[in-house]
Amino acid sequence: MIDIKLIREHPEAFIAAAKNKRFNVDIPELLVLDQQLKAIAQDLQDAKTDQNAAGKDIAKLGGEDKQGAIERMGKLKTRIKELHHEQEALQPAFDELMMLVPQPPADEVPVGLDDTENVELRRVGEVPTFDFPVKDHVELGKALDIIDIPRGVKISGSRNYILKGAGAMLHQAVLRLAMDTMLERGFELMTVPVLVREEVMYGTGYFPVGRDQAYLAERDELSLVGTAEVPLTAYHSEDVLDEADLPKKYFAMSPCFRREAGAAGKDTHGLYRIHLFDKVEQVILCPNDEALSIQYHQEILANAEAVVAALELPYRVVNVCTGDLGMGQVQKFDIETWMPSRNSYGETHSASRFHEFQARRLNIRYRDADKKLQYVHTLNNTVIASPRILIPILELNQQADGSVTVPPALRPYMNGMEAITAT
What are 62-82's pLDDT values in tens digits? Predict the structure, then answer.
């Protein structure tokens, strides 16, 4: 959530942010409601001040003067009640609009409509060429008997799958490599709930706009998360931290659930866009400082790049444009890994910074050196998400005989297996 004071002072910045991020929110209407609520709050304060004065008069006065004070007290009570009703009538509309105001992007974020206008920052690794017909990961998975999509669909419907044998081992191996990488880099491992209260989804910015993408346990007013970012970030909700204890660096491996509403016909082939996957996610809570936010943004991006580099996968990093940013993101870098079956780079990681957007919603604060309360800044990034990452691993490591070479970094997690072959 945004500080309403900032919206009052710089409405044009938030109007531009809504336009460039493609969020439909009426900033002028929000400011009208804000002024009306401010006026009501002032009237309430004045009425309560007069009510206190009338109460004192009643105690001191007698006769007609006292009766007059009693009558005035009655009118003030009626007026206060009316003002409360006016406030209650306006507050929901104000709160609803506030929940829709996006965080303005950083100046260095390119303006664009969608992911086709993201700006490439760098490429790492060489895209290989093959001297034999290349199979996609679905063909490889079927031939090697390690991916079974038809039975996954039979059990759970579209965009589901089953990993078998070496495929399941490969999936677990990349997750374990990512976890070990984060432990080596000093992040604290957490095991977190994946079924959370709806206020946590609102707090992290996934509701209300992303509500259609979530699987809801409506009877219990709970939601399955699409990323461990949600419980990791909400871990300190309503807390007041000590500045000396910042930054907080956490990571977790969790299942992730996404309905992919509105994605009909998009990336339907194979393991790219699915309803359930596992992800290792990293989260940082740091002091309310722009320079520190940028520093930690680069750190979490480097953590993810280290894992991709260990897997020896060619990739590129892009600066995500405004139209592809989420509501609360100040800036986001995506890592896109080369996928032969797509003949392009496909997104495998996203690294985001939010300033205090999530912290305000979750009420995560700390006391600075002057004992003043400040909201933390939050950041998060994918360390690895599987099985999407299996697409480039399988496709880039396939051999002419139909086998797949296991990347050396994964072999210790696969009992020394060097290649996946047909049985």
Answer: 777 777 878 888 899 999 999
